[in-house]
Design a protein that fits this description.
The complex is a heterodimer. Chain A contains four helices and five strands, in the order ββαβαβαβα. By secondary structure, chain A is α/β, with parallel strands linked by helices. In chain A, helix 1 links the parallel strand 2 and strand 3. The N and C termini of chain A lie far apart (34 Å). Chain B is of the alpha+beta class. Chain B has a single domain, classed as Histidine kinase-like ATPase, C-terminal domain (Heat Shock Protein 90, 2-Layer Sandwich). The chains are: A alpha/beta, B alpha+beta. The interface between A and B is medium-sized, with 27 and 28 residues.
Chain lengths: 116, 140
């Protein structure tokens, strides 16, 4: 898997994940992802549009970091999952834990509203 | 003529990385819809992960065998292992995770039950066999 992080002018940090988020893929990005997503209070958008497969092991990483970020007073959102990844997120019930938005702009607005 | 394909994996987390390539090979060869192939890929990954991570430590499964077979319009995925008897269809689903608790996980069987259309278990000849049936679903 690959991970890229970008800071946006509106104060939201975007993490772009690409690849197959199975056990091997998750292990490849987990440490870097956790540091960026949960290391300090922030508004985090995780762009899932390049993730081709998401297993429960990857969901574990997403939820752990979202929870850690919430405990720091920040927030995390997921954006633009491919149809099958979205289906897996809903099947597991993650859509009730982490908000999922169709695009970066709506995710950014949603996070900023929740942080007020 | 109905087709089938099989794969043997060892009881090792590193073996999970072979599942995706296996699914892709038969899905391409037999023109299985992407949506169906991806559901099978995810269910197989979750179930093989369960066998590897939840198997009995005194008598772990040595080999896990997967077989996919065409059955009319449906596809049937069988997953066999030689570990201790365990019927995951009888195990209660874990309570939903909340953001207030410390718990994460317990999503594997929830995903399998939602993304497959039938789940059957039987124990025969000292082996567990889980059979999942996938019906064709209209494209989203």
């Amino acid at each position: 898997m690959e991970l890229r992080a970008q800071d946006t002018p509106d104060g939201v940090k975007t993490i772009i994940l690409t690849g197959r988020m199975d056990i091997a893929g998750t292990q490849e990005i987990e440490q870097q992802f956790t540091t960026i997503a949960a290391g300090q209070k922030a508004l985090i958008v995780v762009d899932l549009s390049g993730v081709t497969f998401l297993a429960s092991i990857g969901m574990r990483t997403l939820v752990s970091c979202a929870r850690a970020q919430m405990n720091r007073g920040g927030a995390m959102a997921l954006v633009n999952p491919a149809p099958m990844v979205n289906q897996a997120l809903i099947a597991a019930g993650l859509d009730s834990l982490i908000p999922i938005y169709p695009d970066l702009e709506q995710a950014s607005r949603g996070l900023q509203a929740s942080a007020r | 003529m109905p087709w089938s394909a099989s794969l043997q994996v060892g009881n090792d987390i590193a073996e999970l990385s072979r599942l995706g390539a296996w699914v892709e090979s038969w899905a391409t060869q037999h023109r299985v819809a992407d949506e169906t192939a991806q559901r099978i890929d995810l269910c197989a990954t979750e179930l093989v992960t369960n066998v590897i991570t939840h198997g009995h430590s005194d008598a772990p499964a040595r080999v896990i065998e997967l077989r996919i077979a065409e059955a009319g319009e449906n596809l049937i995925l069988d997953i066999d292992d030689d570990g201790v008897a365990f019927d995951p269809t009888l195990a209660p689903l874990a309570a939903p995770v909340t953001m207030d608790s410390d718990r994460v996980g317990g999503w594997g069987m929830r995903i399998v039950r939602k993304l497959s259309d039938e789940v059957h278990y039987r124990r025969a000849h000292g082996r567990n066999r889980l059979s999942l049936v996938f019906y064709p679903r209209p494209a989203a």
